[in-house]
Amino acid sequence: MKLLPIMLFAAVSTAMLNGQAVAADGAKLFAEKTCTACHGKDAKTPLMPDYPKIAGQNEAYMIKQMNDIKSGARANGNSAAMKGVMVLVSDQDVKDIAAYVSKLKP
Amino acid sequence: MKKHLVIALALALTPVAAALAANPNVAEKKAGIEAKGYVWNDQSGGGEKIEALHKKGDVKAGKEAYEICGACHLPSGAGRPDGTFPQLAGQHATVIIKQIADIRGGLRDNPTMYPFAQTLTDAQELADVAAYIQTLCIPTDHGKGSGDAKLLAQGKELYVKECTTCHGANGEGDAKKFYPVLAGQHYKYLLRQVTDIRDGKRRNANPDMVKIVKKYSDKDLDAVVEYMSSISMPGSMCKAGAKKK
Fold it and tell me: Name one GO molecular function term (chain A) (predicted).
């Protein structure tokens, strides 16, 4: 019984923090799913000169590119390198990463 | 009519092939185990592998160079239990040099790793990063198999009978012969590699090993990998409770 208010409080604070939580998860995912290795920690210092800077890129565009590279629909250019890591990235991760990166300063 | 079609097709495809070869971030394939006259770990042609093997690796410089590797393989070298990125810590420097050189040379197909192998500037840096990786302790919390006792027993039998000659009783490999350390490697990575070696997809494979695993069924492979992922090398493993980097 004593636990109930604590649980309620926790639930409410989680809900309140949700907006921030998504951003935080995006940052974590961006590092964990090895995006940083090629695109740079700030998403704008790519490893190779012909890799894209993606900080501030359109969210919907990034979701489409990630999904197309994952499915193999896009197989040109450097997508071969990225396809190897896309097995790590779930549909939800794609959305969270795109949301996070789109909000970074270009 | 047919002849014309073939010519038209060939013409249409040529620019694509040329464009692929010209992409600096995709390896140009070199003939491997699928080709006649393949020599495993060929050292006759010189090249950066030989050069790197003769250089003395600088661990400190290697630590700096490793930073870029750590983004995928993690600073500890532990890689990922899901088998996408192998555990590297404690691997023989010779093995690291050979594998990176093979990836860079288009002999081991790995499009994800290739751009990174390319960023290593020269043979000295290759030697440095390999020397550093070799000094890392082997994490003990790597990906393991199902834990099925029967499978483990079958795997042990196979391993003892057919794998120890090269990879050692504790999975310690052989630095001089370029045989990798297996202890501490992720179950899923081992299974993927040994399957690729059996099926001819790992084109820089050792034909002596192919001969052995060729006769293995999927279940045999699973069993032997179950056992491999359970072995440990005394003295090379990370101490229990030690803080992970």
Answer: electron transfer activity
